[in-house]
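Protocol step 4 of 6: structure prediction from sequence.
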Amino acid sequence: MPGVDIGSNHDKIAFWAEWVEYNELYVAKYYKMSDIRVKLNIKDITWGLQKLMQIRPVHYSIINNMFDSSGAKIEGSQNQYGFISQEIEKDFPEVKITDDFHGYKLMDYDQIIPITVAAIQEQQKTIDSLKIEIVNLKEQINSKNSFRLGNNDSTTLSSRNVLKQNSPNPFNEHTEIKFSIDEHNFRNASILIFDLNGLLIKQYDIQKGGDGSIQINGNELKAGMYIYTLLVNQREVDSKKMILLN
């Protein structure tokens, strides 16, 4: 004989005893029919995550009606993880729930696996999309910071180029930013105002070297923290923070 076939014309094989109810079944391996030749109407699962979020995983104790080797009944319960057949049956009519002749609802847990895989794949696509967005945002911020903070060597600038802290700081109505620019080889200069995301908000061009200042009115900006930078000959001299209160 090449092997032993066990079957039933009712498509069920149950290991049951009235005094024990269902018995546990131990096997070395377990296979389910998955050949494409026995499958019709094959469709991709496109709602995996939505469906998976409807499932309520639970931790529970199951009644234990087993007997020990001496024939004495083992009182107590067994702790397990799983789902509730009645809940799955309500939300997932396509999952096979069997009412056996003893009145219990039996569930094919394997039916949840494809839904879980589809949900993970859907979630991974979202994660990959977010990763690309993060990379793009970082590149934008680095590009703005490169302009704001400069890849230029500010150490070659004259020590006579000075940016002072605005006063008052924090401020409500207005604040003053003082600076000093070396007049030697002066070509251009400006003070740039950035928000914390690196977005350029305002630019104040400076026409000549020497000591000077600009005044910023509170109604020109929204309340928050800003970074202002002094550029001389397209090179950063210094950057400082200022805070505008409501």
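Step 5 (inspection) to follow. The longest strand covers residues 235-244.
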